[in-house]
Amino acid sequence: MKKPQKIADAKGKLGILLVGMGAVSTTTIAGVLAIRKGLSKPIGSLTQMGTVRLGKRTEGRSPLIRDFVPLASLDDVVFGGWDIFEDNAYEAAKTAGVLDKDLLEQIRPELEAIKPMSAVFDRRYVKRLDGPNVKKGKNKKDLAEQLIEDMRRFKQENGCDRLVMVWCGSTEVYLTETPAHASVAAFEAALEASDDSIPSSMIYTYAALREGVPYANAAPNLSGDVPAMLELAAKNGCPVAGKDLKTGQTWMKTLVAPGIKARLLGVEGWYSTNILGNRDGEVLDDPESFKTKEESKKSVLDYILQPALYPDLYGKIDHVVRINYYPPRGDNKEGWDNIDIYGWLNYKMQLKINFLCRDSILAAPIVLDVALFLDLAQRAGMSGIQEWLSFYFKSPQHAKDLYPEHDLFIQLMKLKNTLRYLRGEELITHLGLEYYD
Length: 437
Ligand SMILES: NC(=O)c1ccc[n+]([C@@H]2O[C@H](COP(=O)([O-])OP(=O)(O)OC[C@H]3O[C@@H](n4cnc5c(N)ncnc54)[C@H](O)[C@@H]3O)[C@@H](O)[C@H]2O)c1
Prior knowledge:
Elements: E1 13-19, H1 23-36, H2 46-49, H3 65-68, E2 77-83, H4 89-96, H5 101-106, H6 108-112, E3 117-118, H7 140-157, E4 160-167, H8 184-192, H9 200-210, E5 215-217, H10 227-235, E6 239-242, H11 248-262, E7 266-276, H12 279-284, H13 287-305, H14 311-314, E8 318-325, E9 334-342, E10 348-356, H15 359-379, E11 384-385, H16 408-423
Helix pairs in contact: 1-4, 1-15, 7-8, 7-9, 8-10, 11-13
The chain binds nicotinamide-adenine-dinucleotide (NAD).
């Protein structure tokens, strides 16, 4: 056994600040409140229901993750956030239409008490949205300072010991890195100048990291993943993670693609299409927001299948991803995948996957886990990119000059080994020869 890392206790309350109180956020909040009341179990949450094997298979040690590492307890979590609409969390959850009215009524007072703070928002970055609950400021720097004030007030009014921020706002238009993102100094000058290359989400990221608050991005837009933000995260001891929650079709893709590759079967084409009718679907109906999502969804296959290493099997794949806005489905997305594969002597086969999922039901436990793990990471003295949280994301943030790991089971192994490392337990390599000595 190695020396465990020093981890500060999870004492006091943890404030989880969610940017955007839409379907994902309200499903997360309502879920935690319901679980706290004993109305349900935390299904889908690794931090709450997952175990971690320690030592040899013969030792029979597999504690719950939440007993193994000092995570904030659900009883100590307080939620807050921002939205461009004034609806409280109860009204917003009703609009999102994910959860049954019966369930919402049982936690109504607690949900009604959560009212969104006014947002930093600019339609230039989310074209299909507009709302009244928006801050005014003389420039983007001023707006960031207002967010910092919001965080301090929230922390004080709710008696929080620590905060974590997760962007659960709408997907913004596709942006790429510019010189304004190159360093904190350049970024702050660009904030003063209200530079167009700083979208609203990045103003929240900056505010969080300036305040020493860990930050995660649940959406695919550029925010915590530019050099200026990483510099600030390192300076202020903030762990960051992102981006774009791995739910629905991409999650399925990262399950199936490694299986096909493990057997060295070829892939000729992968056609993925979705229908989705919630507000997220409406925002993604705008081609500029869709491009951000498309980039995030498409990169997965390339990294998993490694066409440069396996040109005969994956060198020429037609990979198409479509999302169609279809209001009757609401949050209940339906995805179809058609995968054209080939085997021994080039004989062709097809695989069809029809996934009738519930987007926010899959996303909520991930938001909770990411928030709790980021808080743990900060108490363990970890800052910057938390690659061990790749497990939760479609486009995992990774160190420069490194390719991201997309295989869900490698990601899970990495996550659990990180927890073992933090507690000074042996890492598990799955070699297992010692059982046969
Ligand atoms: N549900 C999933 O499975 C899933 C998976 C991956 C990524 N995501 C991403 O998570 C995000 C949230 O998804 P959702 O289904 O909750 O969408 P949603 O449309 O229901 O909620 C987004 C909320 O963000 C608010 N918002 C937008 N810009 C804002 C700003 N600048 N400040 C404050 N609030 C702002 C909107 O008013 C809206 O209420 C989306 O970007 C989506 O693409 C969701």
